[in-house]
Amino acid sequence: MDAMRRLRRFLLAATLVSAVTVPAAAQSLLDYVGECVPFARAASGIRIYGNAWTWWDQAAGKYDRGHRPRVGSVMVFAKTARLPMGHVAVVSRIVEKRVLMLTHANWSRQNGERGHAEQDVTLYDVSPGNDWSSVKVWYRDNDGLGGGVYPVQGFVYAQGRAAPELTGAHPDDVGALIDAYVPDARPLR
Q1: Are 159 and 63 a contacting pair, CB within 8 Å?
Q2: Which CATH architecture has domain 2-181?
Q3: What global pTM score does this model have?
């Protein structure tokens, strides 16, 4: 009986540790380089596997889903010609009703390569009904919102706490609003 209790405790501890493990060999969540799915899983605690576009259907019956952002929820981008595997990103901050910040991986290029994590990037809801079904995402190469509009399936709501590194200590809310509402604004150099 005592051995069984120790085994249960060990399995519970192992499960808890695996739920917050940073993907790959990264020291910090923000050091991660790789695909968006393992990053979103580690940052949100949502235990879904497979291509990003499958997360919406996989979440049915396991996690609450909806069409309003919440900090720590995972936004599921639909599969398209530009995103053949879809994309998942974690909501790190809600700036205002049509602007939020995401923390995600494998979107912009950094030092000429994809896969790096990006913290608190601007996302702008461009859907006619303000329902987050169509969005524009900040893209490092443009130093602003990218030119593409991406369809979104919705948000999968995490059941626990998101990773503490999800948002920075001083995110640029004003910059996010400028990115969204003043598309031709460029930073002074």
Answers
A1: yes
A2: Alpha-Beta Complex (3.90)
A3: 0.80
